[in-house]
Write a structure and sequence with these properties.
Blueprint (H helix, E strand, L loop, with lengths): L1 H13 L44 E4 L7 H7 L5 E5 L7 H12 L4 E4 L8 H12 L5 E6 L1 H14 L27 E5 L11 E6 L4 E6 L7 E4 L9 H20 L24 H23 L4 H21 L3 H11 L18 H6 L2 H8 L4 H10 L12 H15 L5 H4 L7 H8 L16 H10 L5
Helix pairs in contact: 2-3, 4-5, 6-7, 6-8, 7-8, 9-15, 11-13, 12-13, 15-16
Length: 474
């Protein structure tokens, strides 16, 4: 009887029984348009919702030892001079030694930039950009975590168009959000942490000091041409770093899976080149997101708690890349949108196992700290997807009711946070209720890129409500 009940439950979920109003419809509903006539485009009125989604991917190479192929890869491209951007903490580790040996063996001329800042700022980006402008590079290589890869993307972008003002390409409304139309040089990324997925995405995030806000640059043009994921490069990541990176990957998958469907996103572009990088959930991104959640359920805790569980560590580095395939086209929403002011307005929290003297809330921690509250709030928009996400993360949803979807997914996430030692909400990071208003205010500029993709429309008061709910987790 249990198996029959579960089967009926899944049939009901996939039948799309959730709210079908224009903003909140769930499942894989498709936009109904005027039938095509020959090669004519669908007939829509200006300002209508979109009716299509694009799938653009970086190439991915996965396997133990693929790092040693990097010199051959650039040799095959006939590179004249290569820019290597690397976190200084990695310069003496095996990954850098393998890279240098391969580049020398294949006679690749290169210069190395080591001044990457953890959680980059506009100043650190500009420092790398000025270095790149002076180097006459025709290709780029990023090695390390998201900070190095994002720094490398920015260096490539502005060095390839040296007349551009820094704010030209920064996301509106903080920057001008001008589309990137010029040609960038090829960029290959070798990640050493499992979480950011920056090796497969077109995003470069930084903290803009003048605005006291975290923002970024988002464009398909920024995507690396190749992400080389070598499991051997992930085996020495400190446990706390691996924890925060793992939660970043998990939230990438959850947010892209629960984002507003692509055919309910507006405005529809008047030209396909204007279709944004982050388009809303779609049938392709959903596949990657659910698969990532299942991998997190199977391997995430063991990859951190079981220090000798090499297989779990290998699987999590693959899960990170897969999450990037999902959110790199669908986008993220509230967890990430609120994470930027949380990390930017940090007063005193010092993350363990990070080589910095300054207060630091690592990105993955700033993302997951609101996750239980976020998904409790978004669940009414599409209870079925929230239940399926909970199931992918290990919950038996057979007896569960759709009306409880938010609480159920929130509790599942609290369980992961507890197992991996996440602090007890925003209060555990040094924030108080008096910080809710400035954090809410600082989240509003993220609407253009992130929060507008949430499955429920959200106001400043809604953001404040979620942040209040995130003051404690347990």
């Amino acid at each position: 009887m249990a198996s029959k009940a579960k089967a009926l439950n899944l049939m009901r979920i996939f039948s799309g029984a959730s709210c079908r109003c224009p903003k909140h419809a769930g499942g894989l509903q498709h936009h109904t348009s005027t039938p095509l006539r020959g090669r004519e485009a669908p007939q829509h009125t200006p300002g209508d919702t979109d009716y299509a989604f694009d799938v653009t991917q970086s190439s991915l190479r996965y396997g133990e030892g693929v790092t040693q192929e990097i010199g051959m890869e650039f040799g095959n491209m006939n590179v004249k001079k290569l820019a290597v951007v690397v976190d200084s903490n990695l310069t003496e580790l095996p990954v850098m030694k393998a890279v240098l040996e391969s580049l020398h063996k294949n006679q690749i001329e290169f210069d190395v930039y080591k001044d990457v800042v953890i959680e980059p700022t506009d100043a650190s980006f500009k420092h790398a950009i000025n270095w790149a402008k002076q180097g006459s590079f025709d290709s780029y290589l990023a090695i390390a975590g998201g900070s190095a890869m994002d720094t490398c993307k920015a260096a490539n972008l502005y060095a390839s168009n040296p007349e551009a003002d820094f704010l030209d390409y920064v996301n509106a409304p903080i920057g001008r959000g001008i589309p990137i139309t010029h040609r960038l040089n090829p960029l290959i990324a070798i990640p050493t942490t499992a979480g950011t997925s920056s090796e497969t995405t077109g995003v470069a995030v930084f903290y803009l000091k003048e605005a006291q806000a975290k923002t970024g640059i988002t464009s398909k043009a920024l995507k690396p041409i190749l992400g080389m994921v070598d499991p051997l490069n992930f085996l020495t990541v400190p446990p706390q770093v691996a924890t925060y990176c793992g939660f970043d990957a998990l939230c990438h998958a959850l947010e892209s899976y629960t984002a507003i469907p692509y055919n309910q996103r507006s405005p529809r572009p008047t030209n396909p080149k204007q279709r944004p990088l982050y388009q809303g959930s779609n049938p392709v991104s959903d596949v990657w997101a659910l698969h990532t959640l299942k991998m997190c359920n199977q391997y995430m805790v063991d990859s951190i708690k079981g220090t000798d569980n090499i297989e779990a560590k290998k699987q999590m580095c693959a899960a990170s890349a897969f999450a990037g395939f999902g959110y790199g086209n669908a986008g993220i929403h509230l967890c990430h949108g609120m994470s930027y002011p949380i990390s930017g307005k940090n007063k005193s929290y010092h993350a363990r196992e990070y080589n910095t003297d300054k207060p630091l809330i690592p990105h993955g921690l700033s993302v997951v700290i609101t996750a239980p509250a976020v998904f409790e709030w978004t669940a009414p928009a599409n209870p079925d997807k929230h239940l399926l996400a909970a199931e992918a993360l290990g919950r038996d949803i057979t007896p569960d009711r759709r009306s409880d979807a938010g609480r159920i997914l929130g509790d599942v996430l609290r369980g992961y946070c507890h197992k991996l030692g996440i602090e007890d909400g925003l209060s555990g990071l040094g924030f108080s209720h008096s910080d809710i208003e400035p954090l809410s205010e600082a989240t509003i500029p993220q609407q253009q890129r992130a929060t507008r993709l949430a499955p429920r429309e959200n106001t400043r008061d809604d953001i404040a409500q979620i942040l209040e709910g995130a003051m404690t987790i347990y």
